[in-house]
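ARCHIVE CARD
CATEGORY: sequence design from structure
SOURCE FIELD: tokenized fold
FIELD CONTENT:
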């Protein structure tokens, strides 16, 4: 018998929303079903005996809670790991950590400062790694956002226009790419010096063109908001950008989602925010506390979206190696 030289295929990871290229429509449908099952008290426990490691280098309210609760509600178990409390914080390498955790867990979610660390963990892991936010993307957030939009727009994404106002950050990158994947028209108003990386813009343009959708970046929030079906914003100072706080606050001063900006959008348009928000900066109290917003639905939908993601990447039948 010839010696087997081809390595077994590695696990499938979710490091970018692009890793969901062919799965997004089905994933969103599945998240809706899981949401309805929870509401009806009919969720099963298919994750019995399955475990998830959750490494968080940065704080989290929604991502941590929704992944942990998703595992619990599906009958599995999640373990929170903070680098300060792990040997990772004392110099154990990311690949060695990945090798060890792969022997215990069915999957790892990782909130990292650097996308390259996310890739290093995935490279050495024999179980799926899911990006729980890094400096480049926040794919799980955008699955929940698209779920929220699909609920509001029962007719689907085609012909709808989502406008993003603010920083060209991790959330924007995933939204830009995710909108293109589902054929949603997308426009972002971003100051010139805070635009996303050119290759992300180019990838989004190519995907949008394939889907027959628009993908544009402009400077003026008023231009982006005009005729939009929803206005999305995120913080001006992301985790890791704190040293630039003063200059960012100055650069984004005109990029607030408020009543006047919502009035430029279509009648019935609503505001979105991934949270946490800095009230009075990128969004007003009035918008957050009013009824022209989908913000709290977005937050709830993290839970339902995580379950669909967990099923796809580490559901029953997918084993640690
Ligand atoms: N939107 C989001 O990811 O929130 P957390 O930082 O609280 O997880
Ligand atoms: N852009 C924000 C998102 C927080 C969920 C950050 O990275 O801090």
């Amino acid at each position: 018998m010839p010696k087997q030289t081809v390595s077994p295929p590695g696990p499938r990871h979710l490091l970018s929303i692009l890793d969901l290229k062919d799965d997004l429509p089905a994933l969103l449908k599945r998240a809706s079903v899981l949401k309805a099952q929870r509401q009806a008290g009919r969720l099963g426990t298919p994750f019995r005996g399955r475990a998830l490691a959750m490494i968080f280098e940065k704080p989290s309210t929604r991502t941590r809670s929704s992944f942990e609760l998703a595992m619990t509600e599906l009958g599995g178990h999640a373990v929170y790991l903070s680098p300060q409390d792990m040997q990772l914080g004392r110099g154990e390498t990311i690949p060695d950590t990945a090798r060890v955790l792969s022997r215990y867990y069915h999957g790892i979610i990782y909130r990292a400062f650097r996308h390259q660390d996310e890739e290093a963990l995935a490279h050495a892991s024999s179980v799926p790694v899911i990006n729980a936010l890094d400096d480049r993307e926040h794919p799980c957030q955008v699955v929940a956002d698209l779920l929220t939009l699909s609920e509001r727009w029962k007719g689907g994404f085609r012909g709808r226009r989502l406008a993003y106002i603010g920083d060209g950050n991790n959330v924007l990158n995933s939204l830009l790419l995710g909108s293109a994947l589902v054929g949603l028209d997308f426009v972002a108003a971003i100051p010139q010096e805070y635009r996303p990386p050119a290759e992300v813009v180019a990838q989004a343009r190519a995907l949008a063109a394939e889907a027959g959708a628009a993908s544009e970046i402009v400077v003026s929030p008023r231009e982006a908001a005009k005729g939009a079906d929803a206005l999305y914003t995120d913080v001006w100072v992301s985790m890791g950008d704190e040293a630039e706080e003063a200059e960012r606050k100055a650069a984004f001063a005109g990029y607030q989602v408020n009543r006047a900006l919502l009035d430029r959008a279509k009648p019935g348009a609503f505001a979105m925010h991934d949270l946490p928000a800095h009230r009075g900066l990128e969004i007003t109290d009035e918008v957050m506390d009013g009824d022209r917003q989908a913000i709290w639905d977005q937050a709830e939908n993290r839970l339902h979206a995580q379950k669909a993601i967990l099923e796809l990447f580490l559901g029953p039948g997918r084993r640690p190696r």
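CARD ANNOTATION: The CA atoms of residues 105 and 242 lie 34 Å apart. Residues 141-299 form a domain with the Rossmann fold fold (CATH 3.40.50.1370).
SHELF: design records, drawer C
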